[in-house]
Amino acid sequence: MDLNLFKIFDALIEEENATRAAVKLGISQSAVSAALGRLRDVYRDPLFVRVKGGLKPTSRAIEIKPYVQDVLNAALKSLELSQDDKAIGFVKLGMSDDIEIAYGAAIIKALREEFPQIRPIIKQTFSDVTSALLLDKSFDIAIGSGGLSNSRLQRQAVGQSCYLTISEVPADNGIAFTKKEFLEREHLLISSGGLVGAVDEVLNMTGERRKVAASTTHFATTDLLLAGTSYIATIPAHAALVLAQRSGLFYSDCPVPLKPYPIELSLSKTSLRDANRVRIFDFISDLLRNFLRADPPLMPKHRQAFF
Question: Model pTM greater than 0.70?
Answer without folding.
Answer: no
